[in-house]
Amino acid sequence: MASALTGERAAELRGFSSAQRLAYECAEAVAARLRPGVTEREAARMQRDWLRARGVRDWFHLPFAWFGDRTAFTGFRIPLQFFPTNRRLEEGMPFILDLAPVHRGFPADVGYSGCLGPGPHPLHDKLLADLQAHRELLLREVRERRPLREIYEDVDRLMVRQGYENRHRAYPFGVIAHKIGRVSDRRWSPHVLGFGTQALKGLASDALHGHRDGWSPLWSPYRFSDHPPRPGLWAVEPHLGFRGTGAKFEEILVVTDSGDPAESAFWLDDDLPHVRRWAKGA
């Protein structure tokens, strides 16, 4: 990625990579501490406390935790259902930790899927393994400069072939991804309905400029995403569901204006928990 990672741009990407790694370190640390009886609210608080102890004072969004059939968004109809509840974790139950801290002005947004206990967990393991094909498809088709809406539809078709339901469609606007960008490095920033005000302002600004120029910072199945990938950083989160069990990853995809396909899009970091898992063949 020589030409794509030089000078100021390289330093910026290192900042985003550091924030993303910190978020995944948090997810792994909290996942290791989960025990039967822990509630979603307690797991969300564990993430907040871990990150605050390491200097995080601002958020793209506050941490979420989903247990059991809530990992597949079973019965979700309104946004308030995404917030952590008193659902208690049980042995063998799937869980998802979703956190989006801002570290030194660099936001990250990650999703970590696990299952409580040593296993085996054949269904959950298969869901995680089958996510690899989605990571590969997304990168390949972004490099081909396919319209975001078409790529979304291809992800849908792949899920159907695999025998799964698309659960990211349950997110607001059905998004599979959204743009992220730098924010001011502040010691503290207020949040509204769990979302940091700085991040919301940035997303709103992108939406305003995008509407004028014919693009959207939200990658969705709708007409406003019927355009080629916009250069920048995208937090991408394909989410599979099967009979009350859900699994996903979320990580940063970098899109550039390079004419070299290999440099036109790339995952910010290939040393993440789900990628290491696939490399081990687990």
Summarize this, please?
The chain is α+β, with helices and mostly antiparallel strands. The protein has helices spanning 7-33, 40-52, 122-143, 148-162, 197-213, 261-264, 273-280; strands at 58-67, 94-103, 106-107, 110-115, 165-166, 177-180, 191-192, 195-196, 218-219, 232-236, 239-242, 245-248, 251-255, 265-267.
Describe the biggest sheet? 5 strands, antiparallel
User: Within the CATH hierarchy, at the fold level, what is the topology?
Assistant: Creatine Amidinohydrolase
- Helix content, binned percent: 25-40%
The dominant shape is: globular
Summarize the structure in words:
- The strands form 4 sheets. A 5-stranded antiparallel beta sheet has the order 9-6-10-13-14, sandwiched between helices.
- Helix content is 38%, strand content 22%.
- Helix 1 crosses helix 2 and helix 3 packs antiparallel against helix 4.
- The chain is of the alpha+beta class and 282 residues long.
- The radius of gyration is 18 Å and the shape is globular.
- The longest helix is centred in the N-terminal third of the chain and has 27 residues.
- A hairpin with a 2-residue loop joins strand 7 and strand 8.
- The chain has a single domain, classed as Creatine Amidinohydrolase.
